[in-house]
């Protein structure tokens, strides 16, 4: 009785399974890194946006008066 998978045929199959595992692991690492980077980027953008809004709201009257004075004068 011959085996279902001969020893010669098992070698390339194991290599291809390992290649698939490495590919899946690489894709998962990329997805985790990409999602983490998007999260950090979104956090940075929101912090910078809130800082700009805070500064503009604090000094908006001064900026507007300076612009009006430059236009008038």
Write the layout of secondary structure elements.
Blueprint (H helix, E strand, L loop, with lengths): L6 H66 L1
Features:
single chain, 73 residues, mainly alpha, 1 helix
> Helix count, per DSSP?
1
Write the element-wise H/E pattern from the N-terminal end onward. H
Radius of gyration: 30 Å
- As a percent range, the share of strand residues is under 5%
Strand segment tally? 0
Instruction: Please state the overall shape, judged from the principal axes of the Cα atoms.
Output: rod-shaped
Nearest-integer average pLDDT: 80
- Integer tally of domains: 1
Which ranges are low-confidence, i.e. pLDDT below 50, for 5 or more consecutive residues? none
N-C termini distance:
102 Å
- Oligomer description: single chain
* SS class: mainly alpha
What is the gist of this entry?
This protein has one helix at 7-72.
Word description of this protein:
This protein is an all-alpha fold. The chain has one domain (12-73). It has one helix and no strands. The chain has one helix spanning 7-72. The longest helix has 66 residues, at 7-72. The radius of gyration is 30 Å and the shape is rod-shaped. The mean pLDDT is 80.
């Amino acid at each position: 009785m011959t085996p279902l998978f001969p020893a010669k045929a098992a070698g390339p199959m194991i290599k291809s399974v390992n290649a698939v595992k490495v590919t899946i692991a690489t894709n998962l690492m990329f997805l985790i890194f990409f999602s983490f980077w998007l999260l950090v980027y979104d956090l940075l953008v929101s912090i910078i946006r809130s800082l700009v809004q805070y500064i503009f709201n604090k000094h908006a009257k001064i900026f507007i008066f300076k612009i009006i004075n430059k236009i008038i004068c």
